[in-house]
Amino acid sequence: xxxxxxxxxxxxxxxxxxxxxxxxxxxxxxxxxxxxxxxxxxxxxxxxxxxxxxxxxxxxxxxxxxxxxxxxxxxxxxxxxxxxxxxxxxxxxxxxxxxxxxxxxxxxxxxxxxxxxxxxxxxxxxxxxxxxxxxxxxxxxxxxxxxxxxxxxxxxxxxxxxxxxxxxxxxxxxxxxxxxxxxxxxxxxxxxxxxxxxxxxxxxxxxxxxxxxxxxxxxxxxxxxxxxxxxxxxxxxxxxxxxxxxxxxxxxxxxxxxxxxxxxxxxxxxxxxxxxxxxxxxxxxxxxxxxxxxxxxxxxxxxxxxxxxxxxxxxxxxxxxxxxxxxxxxxxxxxxxxxxxxxxxxxxxxxxxxxxxxxxxxxxxxxxxxxxxxxxxxxxxxxxxxxxxxxxxxxxxxxxxxxxxxxxxxxxxxxxxxxxxxxxxxxxxxxxxxxxxxxxxxxxxxxxxxxxxxxxxxxxxxxxxxxxxxxxx
Length: 473
Ligand code: ATP
Ligand code: MG
Description:
Blueprint: H1 3-36, E1 46-48, H2 62-73, E2 78-81, H3 83-89, E3 98-101, H4 105-111, E4 115-118, E5 124-129, E6 132-138, H5 148-151, H6 167-172, E7 181-184, E8 190-192, H7 196-201, E9 204-205, H8 211-217, H9 220-232, E10 235-236, H10 238-241, H11 244-247, H12 256-267, H13 272-281, H14 284-288, H15 290-295, H16 299-317, H17 324-345, H18 350-365, H19 373-388, H20 396-401, H21 406-418, H22 424-435, H23 438-451, H24 454-459
Parallel strand pairs: 3-6, 9-10
Antiparallel strand pairs: 1-8, 2-3, 2-7, 4-5, 5-6, 7-8
């Protein structure tokens, strides 16, 4: 080895770390440049002029219009995009209004006093108008081929989404074609890059790009597919439907917090029954509520759940509120009742057997969905009240009426009776008691007391006798 070579090796050994850092830095710099620069797609959108579509400004929230106009007057392009455009075209009232623009987050902030920037990976602007929030997002670019290791975890979840792009790129990174229509405030036209308008006319839900790849990229899209098809009465395109069943396992890799958010949306959209049936069909339900899915093999359990969902949809359509807590209690009731039976067979009395069952079913369920503690406690109370409602002596029924969870527990009791559980007499009694005057209620309690055999009266307090035909199970 020559003297020069020895010196070179010595330098490499001493400065090795620094050199590696330098190379890494150069590589990162180079990669950033490539990812931030949008690629030029040659495709031009189909432009649907104002007179050829049904979006009227009357259907758009005045606050969303304000945002669109201000961006546009400041020289930026501004579009309504996503669910709001889709819903107006379907003659439905949008839940919220999302705006897409070429303005950067900082530029948006300068235009609106009532703006806050949120998000670490991708900065979004929220423009606040009292309770209404208009979300404004700068056009994003999809991840390029070969960058998957940066954009996703090995389980397929998106972990990086911070690359700005052109409107066309923004369109192609969206999930379904019907969600990628852009209403242009500059001339009131609709821009359609993905043939979403045609799909909307044909009531078709079609994933943009390769469905299998896109579901892998973000498995929550599986639930979104079921939710949109259920609530908007859309049929899946053949290619979109094909991988649904075999990819349902991907849901296991989604975080509990994200799944919980999706379940809340599912509960609140007025179409829980058709969506539930789709989730059953493609086995998504099994990934979300495994214990319930097992219990649904029993006819009564399925009837209870479907009746509850039908009532929920009816309520939502009448503009009434829907209680996620109640629906969770309904979903978990049969697994809890089965577990309780098991606990009773291991010689626990009914009340502790039920309490133990509730705790264990909730523990398992919250490993999958991050149900907040407050909701868990309410679900616990509703299920426990199923036992307490069987106690109809003394002041107990009056006290139960004042329980904060009485109404939900009562509704569950009636649903159980309606689904064929042998608690019809109990259900009817509570219906009359609830509707009765104070005097009528007193009479009902007396009648119950008199109808009891003397031995039952004596043993009631201590609950020493264990009823074999307990009304809960
Ligand atoms: P709704 O608000 O009525 O449930 P939406 O389509 O507006 O439906 P949002 O969750 O508000 O749904 O998302 C707004 C838009 O963002 C969608 O229409 C879609 O274009 C895009 N989007 C949302 N989530 C995803 C996702 N996981 N993958 C790709 N695009 C998405
Ligand atoms: Mg939306």
